[in-house]
Amino acid sequence: MPSSNDFLAQALLSDDLHAAAARHLEVTDHELRLTLEDGRTLGVPLHWFPRLAEGTPDERARWELVAQGQAIHWPDLDEDIHLTSLLAGRRSQESAASLARWRTALAHARAARAG
């Protein structure tokens, strides 16, 4: 049974997660690196997010902060990642079937952009 200290720690962590906001993002071939408004930096392996890992450098470079810095959106890759998930160490939970459908849609979108 959790102690009252466990509940307090969970509440404090929850407040910290929801108070954080992203300021800048860099995506390399191997890492997603975030700078937060409070000065913290966070890096996670790119392979945690298959849509980003499979995107081109140009597709990964087109991102926008949404929800007052609480999430990042990549329009070309139809990907949204929430800051609370990154801070909690959660990787993508997308199913193989969903990724397969996304790959098909991405191929069509790339073909349409290429003309």
Can you give a write-up of this model?
- With 115 residues, the chain is of the alpha+beta class.
- It has a single domain (21-114), classed as NE0471 N-terminal domain-like, CATH 3.30.2020.
- The protein has helices at residues 4-19, 50-54, 57-61, 83-87, 96-114; strands spanning 22-27, 31-36, 41-45, 64-66, 71-74, 79-82.
- A three-stranded antiparallel beta sheet has the order 1-2-3.
- The termini are far apart.
- 16% of the residues are buried.
Task: Describe this protein with a few key phrases.
single chain; NE0471 N-terminal domain-like; globular; 43% helix; alpha+beta; 5 helices; three-stranded antiparallel sheet; 115 residues
Helix/strand layout:
Layout: H1 4-19, E1 22-27, E2 31-36, E3 41-45, H2 50-54, H3 57-61, E4 64-66, E5 71-74, E6 79-82, H4 83-87, H5 96-114
Antiparallel strand pairs: 1-2, 2-3, 4-5, 5-6
Rounded Rg: 16 Å
How many runs of DSSP E, i.e. beta strands?
6
Q: Which structural category do the helix and sheet elements fall into?
A: alpha+beta
Helix content: 40-55%
Number of domains: 1
State the major sheet: 3 strands, antiparallel
Helices and strands, in N-to-C order? HEEEHHEEEHH
Widest beta sheet: strand line-up: 1-2-3
What's the CATH superfamily, by name? Uncharacterised protein PF10387, DUF2442
The residue-averaged pLDDT reads: 88
Termini, distance in Å? 61 Å
Number of helices: 5
Low-confidence residue ranges? none
